[in-house]
């Protein structure tokens, strides 16, 4: 995940894709840096139960993101390799970067994330930053749980969080199954 304040949006695009959790809307933007280099980046991913219209992926990045998302839902992908550019405060960026270190099938508490960013008193602020993650799933905020192990808030809804955690646990169990 990288962002730069010297970048400006030239074009924005979005697409929708069906998934086991309803619909995913993926937003991308093409940024131009100070040397006129362009890069398309993912700026948002949101879940919804319904969409007004299905919009096919129209850019190479959107097509690749949809391919990787399909692989994730099929259980054959455990890590995403996509350029991400979430917009947020410096603190939110720090939290979101820490979320990217949580491996597929693993969980962390808000306290764990606060400790990982060297701010042990920031558990509530970490929770707030987690809830404002604009690129759900790709920045795995669903992997953050309460200190007691209880599932707490998820912008996509607790049912989706449960599904994602169960999905990742079953993929992990299958990948650790002994061969015959």
Which structural category fits the helices and strands? alpha+beta
Strand content: 15-25%
Helical content stands at 25-40%
Order of SSEs: EEEHHEHHEH
Explain how this protein is built.
The protein has helices at 60-74, 90-99, 110-116, 123-131, 158-175; strands spanning 8-19, 22-32, 38-48, 108-109, 144-145. Strands 1-2-3 form a three-stranded antiparallel sheet, covered by helices on one side. The radius of gyration is 17 Å and the shape is globular. Helices cover 33% and strands 21% of the residues. Mean pLDDT is 88; it is low at 1-9. Helix 3 (110-116) crosses helix 4 (123-131). It contains five helices and five strands.
Task: Fill in the keyword field for this structure.
alpha+beta, 180 residues, 5 strands, 3-stranded antiparallel sheet, disordered N terminus
Please specify the SSE layout and strand pairing:
Layout: E1 8-19, E2 22-32, E3 38-48, H1 60-74, H2 90-99, E4 108-109, H3 110-116, H4 123-131, E5 144-145, H5 158-175
Parallel strand pairs: 4-5
Antiparallel strand pairs: 1-2, 2-3
Please give a quick description of this structure.
With 180 residues, this protein is of the alpha+beta class.
